[in-house]
Amino acid sequence: MKRHSGQDRSITQNWRPATLAVRGGTARSEYGETSEAMFLTSGYCYDRAEDAAARFAGEQTGMTYSRLQNPTVEMLEQRIALLEGAEACRTMATGMAAMTAVLLCQLQQGDHVVAGRAAFGSCRWLVDTLLPKFGIQSTTVDARDPQAFEDAVRPNTKVFFFETPANPTMDVVDLRAVCGIARERGITSVVDNAFATPALQRPMDFGADVTAYSATKMMDGQGRVLAGAVCGTQDFIDNTLLPFTRNTGPTLSAFNAWVVLKGLETLDLRIRRQSENALAVGRFLEGRVPRILHPGLPSHPQHDLAMSQMSAVGGIFAFEVADRAQAHALLNALELIDISNNIGDSRSLMTHPASTTHYGVAPEARAEMGVTEGLLRLNVGLEDPQDLIDDLDRALRQVGL
Ligand SMILES: Cc1ncc(COP(=O)(O)O)c(C=O)c1O
């Protein structure tokens, strides 16, 4: 592989995010291709047996096996790390592989985790079900209140784990306050930044230690592949995360890495337009539906906090209608917006979390985190917002709203 300026930190450190999104991490083969090459290979060959031995011993740079290294995957990892302002990044096969790895790589029996109670259903399952199975205690708190984290700390607390904004209630966590509490106590703060992405919010700028992603969402951005990522210091990635992932194997495929690399080139454009569209749709829904959960709207109780740590709020928000029957009827009345539990797509998608993404969360926990029977989550895409408003207007009238 030939060096490209996108690989040289002394050069990339002067580049702005739009440049990093297109060129950061790029490496070129001897053919000088403009678009990043896709290396669909599981293994690598060596000129001599001694070279293989030297690479395994870490005495020679180079690749050994695609569970451990792959040129296309490494380009993506460098690009995400540069956008995030992190020393290093490791990608994974899915967002959930990233969340599982980032927790299990650093926790052991007897440890304790404090987690935000509003979270994606599978993230709650990790905290509520998987960790306790291995003797790791967990406490869930209302993450909108930094004091709740402080109050939940025990002598054995090792990790704070939360999403901001959270899926699907859009709870916003005060990054500076909560990460500050973690820092003071030697606790590692892990922020699931899937909704915002580094294009809108860089948690490390506010003191977060580690960020984790479902890159399936805004980073791919067109609903094509599943992917995940974890960013942190070089020491955390190399010495805490890698020993776990090298041997357990939640590796991202080169093909999927290539798709996400291409997605990152347009991330900033997409997420800003989707944020504008979501605000337009949110303004339309405000007052028309019983309750709207969109931190980009000035009426949202956490609007000022959201705007102090995000440059825009993104394309996803939630709102409430009366109950499950009305929520399902509204979904069924849509003609343009699709019924789908995915998010981050350039297509507008809507789901009823209580019966889909949060179906597996116990009803009491769902109620506690605000996933009511009437809650709907909307991913606003890149369509003309007036067409989305027209679709919603017609569907709302059909269900009597
Ligand atoms: C906040 C959040 N974290 C993690 C995940 C899991 O990501 P994946 O579906 O890529 O495994 C999701 C998926 O919706 C999510 O919304």
Automatic annotation (TrEMBL):
Broad EC category: transferase
One Pfam family this sequence matches: Cys_Met_Meta_PP
Superkingdom field: Bacteria
Enzyme Commission number: 2.5.1.-
InterPro entries: Cys/Met-Metab_PyrdxlP-dep_enz, O-succ-hSer_sulfhydrylase, PyrdxlP-dep_Trfase, PyrdxlP-dep_Trfase_major, PyrdxlP-dep_Trfase_small
GO molecular function, one term: transferase activity, transferring alkyl or aryl (other than methyl) groups
Example GO BP: transsulfuration
GO cellular component, one term: cytoplasm
Residue numbers bearing the N6-(pyridoxal phosphate)lysine modification: 217
Function in brief: Catalyzes the formation of L-homocysteine from O-succinyl-L-homoserine (OSHS) and hydrogen sulfide.
Assembly mode: Homotetramer.
Stated name of the protein: O-succinylhomoserine sulfhydrylase
Gene that specifies this protein: metZ
